[in-house]
Amino acid sequence: MAHQDLDFGRRVDRLAKKHWALSHGAVTVMRPDGLLVTAPARRRRHLTLRILLLCAVGLFVFKALLLATVGSATYEDRVTRLSAGNAAEAAGAWVMQADPLSRGLAAQIRNILP
After folding, report:
1. Per-residue pLDDT tens for 76-98?
2. Residue from 51, 52, 56, 71 nearest 101 by CA
3. Exposed, middle or buried by CB within 10 Å (0-12, 13-18, 19+), for 70?
4. 3-state secondary structure the chain
5. Which has the closest alpha carbon to 92: 61, 63, 72?
6. Cα distances (angstroms) measured from residue 52 to each of 47, 61, 65
7. How far apart are CA 45 and CA 35, in angstroms?
8. C-beta separation of 79 from 67 below 8 A
9. Rounded to two decimals, what is the model's pTM?
């Protein structure tokens, strides 16, 4: 009896997952034998401009926070030491170098922080 309950529970779980997937979009196709079958639509995940923009904003805010907390001289020294490393570290130093936008944001953050 317990074995039947386990099989029934698995079938119910599988049907619940399929129902959820079908409620978020479905595609109906005809199989070669003429039977119409409905299957969940596959979602295409693509990199949107919005995600790229959020990453760029996050990077500038992160750089500004670092500049505001450690100071400009210390920050420049650390970036210089980072650029002396291997190729990955040099690329990171190029990305993390202080730019006018980061400096301006850091100045605004310094006014807010005690």
Report:
1. 999 999 999 999 999 999 999 99
2. 56
3. middle
4. CHHHHHHHHHHHHHHHHHHHHHHCCEEEEECCCCCEEEEECCCCCCCCHHHHHHHHHHHHHHHHHHHHHHCHHHHHHHHHHHHCCCHHHHHHHHHHCCCHHHHHHHHHHHHHCC
5. 63
6. 7, 14, 20
7. 30
8. no
9. 0.59
Confidence of residue 63 (pLDDT cuts 50, 70, 90): very high
Domain definitions of the chain by residue range: 2-40, 49-112
Inform me whether the pLDDT recorded for 1 exceeds 60. no
Position 66: which residue type?
L
